[in-house]
Amino acid sequence: MLLDKVNYVDIPFFLTKNPYTNDFNMVTGVNATKQSLKNILLTIKGERQFNQEFGTNLKIESLTFDNPITQYEFLQSLKTSILQFEPRIIDVTVSFNNNKLVFDVKENDKTKESQKNIQLTIIP
Hints:
Helices cover 26% and strands 26% of the residues. With 124 residues, it is an alpha+beta fold. It has a three-stranded antiparallel β-sheet. A two-stranded antiparallel sheet has the order 1-2.
């Protein structure tokens, strides 16, 4: 069926004009998923007027954790937000190494009926 072969297309953060089509350049595939992840992670909960639960508290939370339980709860909250707001992602592992957040993501690729692994590192 044709609808099973839909490819996600997103508008980039920085709007640039395509010189050939005079339209916006679009982001597709893995780059679209990475952009969506960044959008979820960098949006503070409550920042979107009509979707108060969208986003994370990544900017608000201090990344100096008092104990492993606090760190675990924070990383789990990031994972929950990603899985809740990004339907392309079927699994994510979040770790904190050397003051960097590392996201290992498994994306469901409907166009090829397979899964892709994506890694994203954010330095808060």
